[in-house]
Amino acid sequence: MLETAALELTEAGACAGTVRERAQVVLDVLARHVPYDAAWLATAEPTGHAYTFQASASLARSEVGHLAGPEMSWDTVLTPTGLPQPCPRPSGRLSSAAEFATRAACLAPNDVREALAVALVDHHRRHIGVLALLYGPRRPPQGRTRRALDLLVPVVAHAVDPLLHLTTAVQLLAGAHAGAVLYPRGERGALPGLGDDALLATGSPLLAAARSALAARHPSCTFLWPRGGRHAPEGHTRVTVLADGSHSPASGLGAVVLSESGNCRGLTPRELEVLGFLVAGRSNAQIAHTLVLTTRTVATHLEHILYKLEAPTRTLAAVRADRGGLYVPSAPGAEPESGSAFVSDAL
Fold first, then answer.
1. Full domain range(s) for residue 134
2. What total of structural domains would you count in the chain?
């Protein structure tokens, strides 16, 4: 039973559907191996203080509406399964349906007497959500079935993980060593399987550039970022931004991943900076104004850039830089780096 259930749950996670679609398949699979009278599944939001309803089985529309509401979310937070770091035994919470007033108002009148609450924790000990198996005529599972459910918890958690598609895409990036998930309202979180980096600190300019790329609805993009300051005394890091199209409150806007810079075609830090403005469609005069350079100096930089990228025109250079991620993005609405007035060629 265990091997078959694990295989079917893994296949559920591998499908290309939304979190809700995957969660519904998970409940269907569990019904064949861990019988229940009804079931309900929710995923934890990134703040850890709320839950998003994803799927149910054998529940009336009114019951689903109640279980998907804020009262049930608060009840879930109050139970041991709702803790950000759940107890070591994930399925060790057997509750009476009347234990909380909100549950009693919804479930007890429908002959649901007991609920087996399961904290969904993946192999990295991340709290993904909560599963409630509800029982009326049937008795909750005991013995071997209960132990099997314990072993299936990480597989279920993986299958309904809102970050699953993002983490799968990140695994295809060679040399990735750090990353973060970007959520609305300026929040960020850890990206499973990758470390952290000072460049990814909350409020950093790099995260602002990544959010700007996501706001432009790019499914993915890559660029370079200077280490140790804008003149890159410690070299550059490659940044890859991946949008998340699952549209779940718990999934995030996307991910930002750091890796080695790779071949920069001999472009200097200043030339990579100028290319960022070129990709953004700025004119020579605008680039000169922002960087406090003369237009003649900018033109010289562009000559070197065209040669190194083997591009006959600035337009083709911008296209090649954009496709190859060979630029440092300009900050939206960037102003000159000092209070100096524009330096004209006449000087």
1. 2-161
2. 2
Q: Which of 113, 135, 161 is the endpoint of a domain? A: 161
Which runs of consecutive H residues, i.e. helices, occur in 164-217? 164-170, 205-215
Identify the CA nearest to 206 among candidates 234, 182, 233: 182
Same domain, 10 and 89: yes
Same domain, 153 and 197: no
Residue where a domain stops, chosen among 161, 190, 208: 161
Residue 336: which pLDDT band, with cuts at 50, 70 and 90? very low
Whether 249 maps to a domain, the answer reads yes
Type of residue numbered 95: S
Q: What are the beta bridge partners of residue 133?
A: 39, 116
pTM value? 0.77
Q: How far apart are CA 36 and CA 30, in angstroms?
A: 9
Report yes or no: 32 and 152 within 8 Å, Cβ to Cβ.
no
Number of Cβ within a 10 Å radius of residue 63: 19
Query: Roughly how many angstroms between the first and final C-alpha of the chain, as a whole number?
Result: 81
Of 202, 222, 214, nearest in space to 244 by CA? 214
User: pLDDT tens digits for 221-248?
Assistant: 999 999 999 899 999 999 999 998 765 5
Local structure of 246: helix, strand or coil: coil
